[in-house]
Write a structure and sequence with these properties.
The protein is of the alpha/beta class and 96 residues long. The protein has a single domain, classed as Transcription Regulator spoIIAA (2-Layer Sandwich). It is 35% helix and 36% strand. It has a 5-stranded mixed beta sheet with strand order 1-2-3-4-5. Helix 1 runs parallel beside helix 2. The longest helix has 13 residues. The protein is globular and about 35 Å long.
Amino acid sequence: MKIEKELVANKLTVKVEGRLDTMTAPELEKEVKEAMENATELVFDFKNLEYISSAGLRVLFSLFKLAKQKMIIRNANEIVMEVFEVTGFADVFHIE
């Protein structure tokens, strides 16, 4: 998994590439939590995210609570969107 972070003003954009699963979810959680100290808005760009597991969903939900519901998910592909829809997370997260 590859993670790119960009903080502009108070908006943290996180681009995730590859697979978000049991092996990579802790790394994403650690990197985003560290970078969120100066952010009030969190945006995930999943254009290059190939797969997300339940461990990835757990981390996203944890970060969602930490971001106080100011979290946006962009560019999720069909596979990732299907996981969000089946699990009900499509109704929780703001997805563009």
